[in-house]
Every structure is written in C-alpha cells, then in structure tokens.
Request: fold
Amino acid sequence: AQSVTQPDIHITVSEGASLELRCNYSYGATPYLFWYVQSPGQGLQLLLKYFSGDTLVQGIKGFEAEFKRSQSSFNLRKPSVHWSDAAEYFCAVGDEYGNKLVFGAGTILRVKS
Amino acid sequence: DADVTQTPRNRITKTGKRIMLECSQTKGHDRMYWYRQDPGLGLRLIYYSFDVKDINKGEISDGYSVSRQAQAKFSLSLESAIPNQTALYFCATSDGTQAEAFFGQGTRLTVV
Reply:
C-alpha cells in the first residue's frame, strides 16, 4: 500500500533562512509525487509535481523538490523563506494515473521575523 | 468564481442528523474526489468517481455515501452524523491525465 511520511510536524525558520521539508514515501512502482500548500482557511494549492525525468523539479513561489529513488524521498526546499510562506505543507503520492492521492500528515511552517 | 465550489463552508449539526455536503466544478473534469482532513492525519480519501456512472470507496468510506448527479456535481452524505466525523472536508477534481488535483476551499463540519 502507498504511504507518505512527513517526519516534522512543526518547523520554525527565520525569515530569509533556507528551508527543507522532508517527505518519504512507500510505493511499489514509479511514484507520482506532489507537494501542496494550505494557507489558513484555504484549500490546497499545488506547489510542484514529479512524474519522471529530471529529479530536481521547480515549482511556484520559488520552491523546488528533489526526487531520490534510493532514499524514497521527495524533499521540498526553498533558499530564502518569506513570512508569507507560513502555512501547512503536504506531500502526497498518487497512483499510476496520478490520482487517488495519499497524503502525509503535513508539516506546519512558522516563519519568525 | 472558484473552479471547485463547496457548500456549505461551515456547518454545525447534531448527532444522528443526516447532512449533505455539496461540490460543484467548472473545470470540466471527469474525476471527482472527497477527502477528509484531521489534524495530524493529513487528508484521507473517502470516495471517488471517475465519471457519472462510476463510484468507488476510498480509504475511509464507512459512515459516508456519495452521489454523482452530473459530471460537475458530487455530493457527500453523512446518513447519521457522529461526533468523530467532525473534520474539514475537501472536494477535488482532476482530468486523469495531468494528474493535478484541484481542491475546493473546504467545508468545516462540526457534529455535536
């Protein structure tokens, strides 16, 4: 069965500092991997996705993620965090058609000034 | 207007009551989903539908039912609400090719 683990429930970073959110997945075949962001009171917005090809994918808002098959990881990074990045971030894996997403528990990002 | 609209946005209901959450979309997508979000658990799939005549159970379908009234409409029902169904519910759509899911803004349901 598919599963996603986000080891960090909360992360606090200073504005301007770099960020890395961890995600590990379990999936039998080539995974379809996603990062979503949820701002307070809002729905989920797709940051980026990986299906195949280049293992470093670029997303919106200056985010990037790197797929590492050997580590079953898909970590999200941003070189310089802005206060507006404070939100909850979800990693997800989809089936062979990229549907029926399985989500991690989420990581809440706090940004301190 | 939002591409995926959920109504109501907030609802408080009593234990044992029947309640329906509605979702409509203007994306033209065939695939629609209902997820439930609980703190510390992320989102879990309740039901999904790949077209009007297709309904499938997800990970946590017990206590829920759905109806796909049209390509654009997908409703979730709680036949007899119980307090542990208090959660944030999301509807989502996808076209099955790009595999990007588009989410509504959520319905916060409280069962007292």
In short: The CA atoms of residues 5 and 24 of chain B lie 5 Å apart.
